[in-house]
Amino acid sequence: MNAPFVLFLFSLIIAVVAFSLRAQVRWSSVWVSLGVGVLAGLVLLVGFDEPYGFLGLSLKLPSQWVVLGRSFGIGGEIRPMISYLYLAAAFMIAPAWIVGVPRYFTAIAPLMLAAVAASLMVKPFLFAAIFIGLAAMGAVLLLVVPGTSSTTGSMRLLILYSLAMITVLITGWQLEIGGVTSASQALAVQVTALLAFGFAILLAVPPFHLWLPRVIQESNVYVVSFVAIILQAAGLFFLFRFLDTYPWLRESEGLFSGIEWAGAVTVLLATLWAAGQRDPRTLTAYCLLVDLGVMLIAIGTGSQLGLELALGISGARVISLGALSLGLGYLIRMEGEHSWRGMGFRRPVASSTFLVGLLSMTGFPLTAGFPARWSLLASIKSVNPLISWVVLLAMAILTGVTLRWAAFLFSPSEDMERRDTPLLVAVFLYGGIAITVLLGVFPQTVFPWVVETAAGLTRLFP
Amino acid sequence: MMWLLDWPEIPTLLLALSGLCMFLFEDRRVLIGLLAGEYILSFWLMLTTIPIVDATALLLAGALAVVILGLSANVFTGKRDVRRVTLPGTLVFRFSAGAIGILAAVGTLRAEIVQLSDLNKVYTLGGLILILTDFLQLGLTTNEFRIGMGLLGLMTGFSLLYTAVEPSLAVVALLAVVHLGIALTVSYAMLQSDPFTLVKGGRE
Q1: Which of A30, A42, A218, B100 has an alpha carbon 20 to 30 Å from B135's alpha carbon atom?
Q2: Nearest CA among A324, A284, A291 for reference residue A310
Q3: A56/chain B closest Cα distance in angstroms
Q4: Close Cβ partners of A74 (under 8 Å, ≥ 6 residues apart)
Q5: Quick check: A323 and A401 in contact, CB under 8 A?
Q6: What backbone phi and psi angles, to 5 degrees, belong to A57?
Q7: A210 touches B at CB < 8 Å
């Protein structure tokens, strides 16, 4: 027995039990949330490669697992990352039953997580691309709704992630075997371009975001948010490990400024698209895209602070998008997709959760999305004022869009009769609002821990 | 039979033909047959670079993928008579698209990034033809079955090239899992989608 095998085995056991509980989505959500939460704690706290006592027994769990000449390893540098992903998943899965997720969601989600964990554990780490591809396949299984009239978004996701996998593997081969370095300038440029293509797909940089607005209309909003959070986090960690491993890449001219401008263009385009949306689901997709763009700008600063802020933005996204999609998912489940006017009167708690989540995604003050954005603005305003204005403009426009939606949801309509919200559902909805606001007011409670997730990459975070 | 390995031109030529036929034929059964043929031709080419055990593992994964996709297509057809999966455009357009894919593969052979591999040119061409024709096919359709065919073809071409430059059992095993994963995922999407809506929406 070794740590990676135990992690895979327990993920599988959690999935199998969740599958057997598929008819009772509430209990399977609770089971999976607790299960992956405990795994997150164990990955972070249990000592590997050293004996420790448990129930009077002396145990030793090796951190390496050799399979077919390659290995999986839970080294100190990736333990916080795996733990972070599992915790984010536990947070998202706990209230999943409220929004009517497909009944296989809780069974497939742990397997998808195991694939993402494998992408972090596999050595050489370039094979991570294959496991992210496998995780994307798991995502497609989650996103395809039985009896759906269209699977275009899910198929786009599958195609794009397959292309990203191929691109990153080719790049990896050229770096490892072809011996491409900054010394071979022309080839280095080609490799960097290929790598940029692969990561643009993994991080949904336009035009590779096309799956997102489509899939959010075809699938459950909450499931799409879960998939986006997990896959984007996996892509971000993979990018950090690339940057950590290859110094010539970190030092290559134009790479970071390219990322920064790609982020700025993403923010600008996504903000304009978001402003024109009449469907809250596609609005959610474009707000997520803006958030990803801001994260890219943070990475593009190339500084340690910028990279830490990118992690902070990624962490805040779990809270903001979780609250947003919880409120929206519940509204869609209970009221359908076409009667938004007066929804605030009929379902005030869920509408408020949706709006607070949306405000947080825009980076509004006193919400979870604000602190990292504000720090980013403070750090880039003197270096790149144009980009800082783009971010500020996006925040202002999206705040306006949110207020417009608030006015619409709370505008009078024929049906304004208030519906009852079950107590447990209300607890989760209020909880979403409370966590979003609390993290906006006291970011220091969680942000330092999130920022530390990649601290093991010592060349990137010296 | 070993003399066959001295003639990589034959499977490469047949792969080009198969890539072109993928654009021209519409019957699911013919397309499944073509995909199976591509796996066998890739196996033939792979034998020149990797051990027979590794190549066989990928062939078996491919065979399973073809069976999964074929069975799903059969169930799907049983729901309603939607055997034809047409790409957009006329026959001439589709022929041109296939031909462009093959020509692009020939052109790509000269790229510096491809020449790094030191692989046999004919062998490399076989992989590139599969990658580029199937890439084009993916760009022309939203049909799940066609997407499955395109992705599996693309992965076959990639496996051909990647196993030659990174020959290890782990890589073969992982690529085999990817082939099976794609087949299962696409089959699931195909079976879950409503064929009545597909016909009504004019996507078939």
Answers
A1: A218
A2: A291
A3: 39
A4: A3, A4, A7, A43, A48, A63, A82, A121
A5: no
A6: -100, 150
A7: no
Nearest to A68 among B151, B162, B170 (CB): B170
Query: What is the identity of the amino acid at A287?
Result: C
Per the CB < 8 A criterion, the answer to whether A222 and A99 are in contact is: yes
Please judge whether B113 and A148 are an interchain contact, meaning their C-beta atoms are less than 8 angstroms apart: no
Contact criterion met (CB < 8 Å) for B168 and A68: yes
Of the candidates A201, A181, A43, A188, which has an alpha carbon nearest to the alpha carbon of residue A132? A201
Give which of A162, A175, A176 to mutate to test B binding, by max B Cβ within 10 Å.
Answer: A162
Q: What is the pLDDT of residues A395-426, one digit of tens each?
A: 999 999 999 999 999 998 888 888 989 999 99
pLDDT digits (tens, 9 = 90+) for B117-144: 778 888 899 999 999 999 998 988 888 8
Size of interface A-B (CB pairs under 8 A): 98
Length of chain A: 462
Sequence ranges of the domains in chain A? 1-119, 124-245, 254-455
| Triad A114, A82, A177: Cα angle to 5° | 80
CB-count burial class (<10 Å; 0-12, 13-18, 19+) for A151 = buried
Q: Kindly report the number of other CB atoms within 10 A of residue A437's CB atom.
A: 18
Q: Render the burial of A27-66: b for 16+ CB within 10 Å, e for the rest.
A: ebbbbbbebbbebbebbeebebeeeeeeeeeeeebebbbe
A69 contacts B170? CB cut-off 8 A = yes
